[in-house]
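Can you give me the bound-state structure? Components:
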Amino acid sequence: MLALTERTIFVLMVAVFGSITLWGFFNMYRIVRRGRAASKFQNLIPQAVKAFLEVGLQTPVYKSRLILTTFHAFIFFGFSYYLLVNLNDLLEGFLPGYSTAEVSTGIIGPLNFLGDVLSIGVLLGVVVFLVRRFIAKDKRLEFNKDVLLYPAVEKGGVKRDSLVVGGFILLHVGSRFTGQALRLAERSIINPMQPFASALSFALRALPPSAFTSAIHASWWIAIGLIVVFLPYFIISKHVHIIAAPVNLGLAKQGERGHLDPAVPPGAPPDLAPGAATLADLAWPRLMDAYACIMCNRCQDVCPAHNSLRPLSPSALEINKRYWLNENFTGFAGGAASPPLTEFAISPEAVWACTTCFACVRVCPVGNEPMADIVDIRRRMVNDGAELDSGIQSTLEKIGKTGNSFGQAARNRAKWAATLDFKIKDARKEAMEFLWFVGDYASFDARVQEITRTVARVLKSAGVDFGILYDGERNSGNDVRRVGEEGLFEQLAEQNIAAMSKCNFQRVITTDPHTLNALKNEYPDYGGKWDTIHYTRLLAQLIDEGQIKLAKKLDYRVTFHDPCYLGRYNKGFNPPRALIQATGCEFVEMPRNKENSYCCGAGGGQIWMGTTPPGERPAENRIREALAALATLNGHGGNGAKPDKPLLFVVACPKDVVMYTDAVKTTGNEGKIEVKDVIQLIAEAMGEELQTSNSQLQNAVPA
Amino acid sequence: MNIVVSIKQIPNLTDELEINAEGTGLDHDALQYVLNEFDEHAIEEAVLAKEATGGTVTVIGVDTTGELDGALHTALAKGADSAVKITGDFPRGTDSHTQAKLIADAIRGMSPDIVLTGVQAADDRDGQIGPMIAAHLGVPYVGVVTGVQVKEGKAVVHKEYAGGVMAEFEVALPMVVGVQAAHQPPRYAPVSKIRQIAKTAKIDEVTGGAGPRAGSTVRRMFKPESAGHAEMWEGSPEEVADKIATLLAEKGLVKRG
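Here's the bound-state model for the whole set.
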């Protein structure tokens, strides 16, 4: 179809633009290589297969925004198919007389049909995306007021890029589609296997016959020539996600979600500073993240800090990294240093607003881990003696001095147990089946101690052989590590492991999901290899086996909040629900549940912070969500009608008890809903089966 | 600039304080010891002064607990250059007269330009260590200081008076400063750095001689005893209000209308 000059021009264009593009990819590779070593990637082939299936089925994209994702799927499938379509276009251009537009039989027939339908799918998808961004102006594409934005981002770089990419797709696919219609119109035929192109061809038949040849040539150039021209831009565009995202998914974090990479890569020289100050301090997959990011802001949607109007946006972090790299492309690839990340990628306020809830990492459709950057930035700040939030600093100092975040003397740790009418075994002196790692909040917080005693009473009544470490236990260090104090975490892990190693037990149970996470996922690196489970899992098992008998059916309507470190991090979704169901309570799920549970706002050291920022706190937002969910149950009146049974907000984390009890008060919902730990439901349902008592307390407090 | 910081350890006040069997002091062995909070400010102010004008910071203390190393390592991690501990038969709760004499003897040979120490400590509350070191060394002392600037043989110190009044002193060096608060909050020392220092840093050890002993002895130490009992009034707001009015009238504070 193409004339010799056209073919020559095309080959030259491919040579020139192709070379620039290859040079770009080479530099992109050099940029990613600037990052620090990452933990070893294993099982590369299964991972690659997994990534291939994920991309093919679009499952990571379907984790949120179902409708928009469907339009994305149209574009994705269309574009994938266009690899074949464009090959055919090249043949049409270069093989004289080769044309498939009119073919409706054989193998080409159905292939034509797919191409025709998918072209419309892509165009529809892109129009929807452009309308959403530029006409409907979807708020989710914007950032909170005080989010740090790199100047190029601030000036609307993402918008311009989106317009260019959208325009490119419209022109490329639209022109190719029009080319097919022109070919049909030229010969006044319709191809039943190209229904949409045939429909357009009716309108195009009105063109003067002399116009067809040049129109077909123009459509070829706008479709295929445009790709070649676009290729170099591809390198600096978010569109590069079509290559970077699948690679990123293939290289996504392996192992447990709750296992942080160490602050310095294993085998690094001893003077290498921990954590990250500049881009090159990040592990190389974190640099890859910047290229994989499609700037959809889904991470921001689920971020509790963002939703509390704090200046944190995980996506802004990735986007800033990317735009800085675009502007310093060859410089950084060649070894130049970046400014501190806190000056262009994320503000210090935002660094300290993260609750480490993992929601951003979980929801990301391209396998990015913005949270890992934040923890690494914290690590370096702590290491360099940066000014810390006064609450965090004093808590770290308390933990360093006393081994607990309350600054209490170690010998007060088991004081909560003093009012029980039985003595809990001392794991340092006796053998036992279960070592119960109680945790700081469960041990020291006056609002939680009664719940801790209830756990002890239920275990005792069920005949569980358990004991505690008494003053041998220290803060597990889970949140210490997530605040960036790697040294203190290591010290606590070593101390706890040393204390536990001297004891004789088979398994570990924890009350605090944060503790569960550290013991289960991070202590093994330090030699503490035990089978650690959350107490909800043990209780569910005991009920199954009939060791705990629930004598009473409870008459509450309840919802359950998945604690981040129990649910999203450690997949403990089912045991708490099984326990609630066993008590006979009427159970209602909140819209955000299990993997998509919404953080209470306490994690990652937030509960230690001295200042409470203005705005709706995550826990308050959650209480409102719970009340709405409990009110709209089928057959029960919302609309302010008085509920027919008491409403409960059930949790399984000591920090949640504190956070939500507070949030019920601050949202003015006292008397409407009560916060209870799942253990309190079990104890109540056990009725007479709960044999032990909390003797002194019962005497002291009149019923 | 040769800066010396004198520190001491005191019982952790979040602990429940126990009185010894004789009833004359704390049961020291049952208590956990931590660095005096005012001394933490003295260390910070010393490091800030060093960062502003150069020089070295030496931290020194009497090891009354056998655990002073931890506090010295932390000070080194925060930016001090060397650490000295005075050892000998000095039990927990050694009085301030003895500690001041030991410190003064140990630092005389170091010819410090300025000595900083916490203005007081919660264990004895006598605020004497600073003034006594100054007296032993025969140099001036200013206490309740919230900021120190050193230049050309002089120090400008800010002293805080009651009622929010500030004074600025210019004092010829050498001198001793009793620090109320550093002009910035004490920095955080990351544990990895402290542990690194604990492995590598050398703490100089000085054997202390006999101290002069305190001029006073504690006759009796005890927990506050309640002088009376509170009576809780229950009932409706009206009933409680009536009781209050009756009581005020009985006391002759108001007349019942």
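A couple of observations. The radius of gyration of chain B is 23 Å. Chain B touches chain A at residues 12, 14-16, 32, 34, 78, 185, 187-195 (CB under 8 Å).
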